Amino acid sequence: xxxxxxxxxxxxxxxxxxxxxxxxxxxxxxxxxxxxxxxxxxxxxxxxxxxxxxxxxxxxxxxxxxxxxxxxxxxx
Length: 76
Fold this sequence. Notes:
Blueprint lengths: L13 H16 L3 E5 L15 E3 L7 E2 L4 E7 L1
Parallel strand pairs: 1-4
Antiparallel strand pairs: 2-4, 3-4
């Protein structure tokens, strides 16, 4: 456990986002819509608004098959 270092969320590259969406397409999510995961947005302040990026959510939190949604996360 001492080797565990939490990864600080950072904006994804175009290549990472392409791979992320390609994985979803290949696993049957091609028609799903993309939404921003709203968790944490309550901490967004004016100083962050000019520096927003998109990131990939943690494993297990990337989609909701019940609603047909794929999620990206806001990084600031």
